[in-house]
Amino acid sequence: MIKKLYILTLLTVFSFSTHSFADKNMMSVGTEGKSNEVTRIIKIKMYDNYFEPNSFNFKAEETVKFEVENFGELVHEFNIANAMMHKKHQPEMQMMVENEILLGDSIDRKKMAKMAKLDKSMSHQHSNSVLLEPKEKQYLIWKFSKAQNIEIACNVPGHYDVGMIAQVKIDQ
Ligand SMILES: [Cu+2]
Q1: Cα(7)–Cα(140) distance, integer angstroms
Q2: Helices (H) and strands (E) in the chain — how many of each?
Q3: CATH number at residue 144
């Protein structure tokens, strides 16, 4: 119990200290989009462990609605970011596994809400991502920023490493 509290305290300190940096970082790949600005709707299928399609081409400033559905038998994440952001997000996902919020084929959303009160990073409330159980479907509207190459990836522990990544090329 003491050990758990200690870890939570550490995590809270960590997430407070990195939050403004994380927000700024996220802005570099885009921002949450508005539904009246959507110019394209794209259906994404998630399987164990890959995306279909797995490469995209967008224009700078374009607003896209992603309809994401999990056809796999495992929990998967759809996360729009760059490689560095994915790397930073992975320890949060690992903590969700260690706290038994994130299970192989399900998400304990009750526990997630409870933990989120103690540590915001455990809420998985990021505008650039959705986390889905098998058969779940959710949409995400994203406005891309400047021309660059970024990645849509799944940061469920182990999945990024086996290549659950879609390359995103944003042109001027
Ligand atoms: Cu995955």
Answers
A1: 32
A2: 3, 10
A3: 2.60.40.420
Domain span including residue 141: 2-171
Per the document, the length of the chain is: 172
Determine the straight-line distance between the first and last CA of the chain, rounded to whole angstroms: 52
Specify the pTM: 0.85
Displacement of CA 143 from its chain's centroid (Å): 15
Ligand 1: centre distance to CA 113 (Å): 21
Contact of 166 with 78, CB cutoff 8 Å: no
Residues of the chain with pLDDT under 70: 1-26
Instruction: Tell how far the Cα of 107 is from the centroid of ligand 1, in angstroms.
Output: 13
Q: What is the predicted pLDDT for the residue at 116?
A: 87
Q: Which residue has the tokens 């997430």?
A: 15
Domain total in the chain: 1
Q: How far is the CA of 1 from the centre of ligand 1 (A)?
A: 30
Calculate the alpha carbon distances from 21 to 15, 16, 87 in Å.
10, 10, 14
pLDDT in tens, 20-46: 555 666 678 999 999 999 999 999 999
Strand partners, 169: 57, 149
